[in-house]
User: Fold Nucleotide pyrophosphatase from Cytobacillus oceanisediminis 2691.
Amino acid sequence: MNKYYFYIIIFFIGAIVFPSSGYAEDRVEQENKVVLISFDGMRNDLTKEYVKKGKLPHIKALMKNGVAAKDSKTVTPSLTAPSHAAIASGAAPSETGMVSNKWQDPQKELANGESAFHQPLDKSPLWAEAKKNGKTTATVLFPGSNPSAGTQADYAVYYGETWAESSLDKLQFKKAESWKHKESSFSPLKEAILKLPLKKAKNKEIYILALDTSDDGKTNYNRFIFSENRSADPKDVIVNANEWGSIPVEADGESAGFWFKLKIDPGLEKASIYRTAVTSALIEGPDGFEEELLSKFGFFPVQDDTKAFEKKWITREEYEEISSRFVSWATDVSLYIKEEYQPDLLMFYTPQIDHESHHFLLTDPRQPGYSEENSQKHKKYIEWAYKLSDNVVGQTMDSLSGEDHLLVVSDHGMEPVHTILAPNTLLKEAGLLKTDNKGKVDEEYSKAMAVASGSAAQIYLNENLTKKEKEKAADQVEKLFSEYKIKPKFQTKVLKGYLGEAGDSIVQGQVSHFNQAAKQFFHYLFRKEEKPYQIAYGNKKENKHPNQGDILLLGSRGYMMGSSLTSPHMPAIELGSHGGNPDRKELRAVFFAHGPSFKKEHRISSITTLDIAPTVYKLLDIPAPDFLEGEVLKDALD
Assistant:
């Protein structure tokens, strides 16, 4: 009996000191993986309103199974490039150098601006830091991740070039000659030529052969072959009338392409072809990666074509098909990379909400073209973009495995605008900006110039001014814009519009919308003077980045800015804008998260976009760089 107890004791000691190899393997924790999606322009209040109405089922499920922030405050100015740089780095614009979507290069003359979307970040982004720490990284279209400018991820896809703009071309069909083909036609063969002007290559000619395969006793051209050499090869594109087709284009080892639709009657008396822009992508990765993506998913499709829709080249349905095709391509490529290459960090992006909101956010009666009927129609366009994004969330959630964490974020919200301001006109009227006889900025004699983007404008003072001259010019600029006022022109239809908006808000139980509409109603009724400009910072601001202006102007609610020398204020050229004060609720972004490290069905207080990167570093369990300005969202984590 004593020996029996002795063996039991030895057994338990052995189990503790020398656990079985299988048990040890089961206890090994899997490394966390992170998928981050950014939906450009996704408004916090509008998203949650749609969720409440049951219009975004996948985001609703994400909220139920994870964490949702009250809202997310972005950086100033609330523009795409600075905001995404903050998300990617955890640093403010004064550190990343992404101070606007456009800025004045300090090394160039006063009137030479730079676009942010092809510039490197001054602070190392998440994908670079993760890669440095041995993690596998991937970026798809994420602003700031351009592989040709700065540090790239292991797998990178970004916007390439536009080789040709979209067009609607008339086609002249005539008797076909010299074609090699096997298909029969019940009407005489006819052909037309599509001329394709290309920026990246020699202009192309594509021959279109029309066939009548209907055998119905009528002239009914219904089948079309597209060829570069009048030979119906297996690789040639064949489409039916009024159906979408696509054609890849190659030049100098680069790949692009376009989608098209023939708009044709059966007898070819009326014939035209709409084609999208010819677009390409930048794809970087290991050998064969680009070829693999192009083979599996085809060329990079155009993002949208508002011009074609507004010119009535295409219907709203066709417009949505173009945008949906782009979103599907970006999502499918992203999730394929996730599945095939298992990156520890995947960051991808879609811009459809932002694009639709810029063009169709018609909710303020002071906006050009406002009517209740038109507003309701436009609201459906915006809702469609949110539903499209919700589908991306659903598709991504379906792809998640046990160790995956999903973060759904946006860079900023969006607000309706009715007026565009011309700060350079005010500078010129004040004698601070000079132009030559051709209307161009006179570099030598100008003291100040504005570079506008959205609802923000950077004011740059001439670097050739002495310190004293600069201080004097800065004081003049600040006084000029802080004192400038506009008195709204009274229109009865605008007053009725505000009453209608307030009434709709009551019916729909939207208290915040009602309060805003009521405030605008009384403000407009008494026609108070408005100060359209706000000064975010002045010339005395410390720790400015060289890309930043000496003074930053923000548009008040309802105002955007332009760089042109036009009237000091005029009806807005866009319906939606951002870039203004991020404290406004319309400009607040979203934050949702799900995964094994996040709490379930949990709500946290307001965050900032600077908190996202520190949280991702925590999830990946890698050292965070010392320049981070945000904080880990501890309340969101288990």
